């Protein structure tokens, strides 16, 4: 439940604490259920110790640290994915700009060739004859 909550973007500390408490209770119930079965009771070599509240606190703290580590690992993974997407998008933009530049250069080259062809087809410019300087009197 906690992983689903975190993956869905949840981050409310109160809800995380409740989920942690539920998980600790479930672990305690599982440990109790894995005891002797079918009416057989194992004779302990030593007297059973009462459940230690400190150990439960340590289990809960360890579980909280593990869950926080998982959340941080997922966040790191999400950041890596975003960085790769940005890098891919940046390289795609650069590639598109390079293609556009190459196309523009090709068009400029074609226009230059057309200009040279047009110069060949045009007749030379006809200028009026030069005006002679006035004659001295």
From TrEMBL:
Keywords: Coiled coil. Residues 32-54 are annotated as: Disordered. It comes from the Eukaryota. Residues 55-114 form a coiled coil. This is CCD17 protein. It comes from Jacana jacana.
